[in-house]
Amino acid sequence: MADFLQQLKDIVLNFDIDSAEKTAKDAIESGTDPLQAANALTEAIRDVGDRFGKGDLFLPDLVCASEVLKKAFPVINEAIEKQGGSESSVGKVVIGTVFGDIHSIGKGMVATLLYAAGFKVIDLGINVKGEDFLKAVKDENADILAMSALLTTTAMEQKKVIEGLKDAGIRDRVKVIVGGSPINQEFADSIGADGYGSTAPEGVKICRRFMGIE
Q1: Tens digit of pLDDT for each residue in 188-212?
Q2: Whole-prediction pTM value?
Q3: Which of 40, 63, 82 marks a domain boundary?
Q4: Which residue of 15, 139, 147, 161 lies most exposed, with the fewest beta carbons within 10 A?
Q5: What is the span of the domain harbouring residue 128?
Q6: What pLDDT was estimated at residue 199?
Q7: For residue 87, is it within any domain?
Q8: Which of 32, 52, 203, 23 is nearest to 113 (CA)?
Q9: Cβ contacts of residue 203 below 8 Å, gap of 6+?
Q10: CB neighbours of 169 closer than 8 A, spacing ≥ 6?
């Protein structure tokens, strides 16, 4: 079992997208505990995130590691569900790219890393209307709302959503984190966001901090 756990870590650390799904299946079929398997993947992606934060790895490395998780995690999760168990969630995050913006890579990385960090993630995708963010926050009773904007022309959509939360009387129920290339801390502060992440790993750390675990 220990060997398969190391293999799961290695596919992330070596950015081995092609072997990700097969390695996960082999691990489960060998009798590896799916919860331990999930932990192995999580430990590895945290290591990648830490190295990215230190400048030892670069954005393409982080993207590749994220893709490995997308291939491997569904196999592990299916095994967990069959076992009748579930990974303990540290919090619930609604995430999406704002209306008018169809960029998905950054948002997708954050969603994957949040998932690996133990969050339940409700990914609304791209080009998400303000009312759909609000509905998801209400319906899911979300702890955190994460919004991405990759265009200067769509950045103000983040403010509109925050104003919508206020109008709906639920602003104090949810923490809001924003990100994207045109976004900075000053802008985040000006629109009333609770946090700003300049990179995907930093965004995850802020979300963990929101939940009191960072």
Answers
A1: 999 999 999 988 889 999 999 999 9
A2: 0.80
A3: 82
A4: 139
A5: 92-210
A6: 87
A7: no
A8: 203
A9: 110, 113, 114, 146, 177, 179, 195, 197
A10: none
Residues 111 and 185 in one domain: yes
Count Cβ atoms within 10 A of the Cβ of residue 92 and give its class: 0-12 exposed, 13-18 middle, 19 or more buried.
Answer: middle
Angle (CA) 62 65 98, round 5°: 60
Residue 148 resides in a domain: yes
Mean pLDDT calculated for residue range 150-160 = 93
Q: Which of 82, 107, 138 is the last residue of a domain?
A: 82
Amino acid identity, residue 75? V
Q: Is residue 163 part of a domain?
A: yes
Query: CATH no. for residue 21?
Result: 1.10.1240.10
Distance (Å, rounded) from C-alpha 107 to C-alpha 96?
7
Q: How many domains does the chain have?
A: 2
Amino acid at 133: F
pLDDT 10s digits, 13-30: 999 999 999 999 999 999
Q: Judge if 39 and 100 occupy the same domain.
A: no
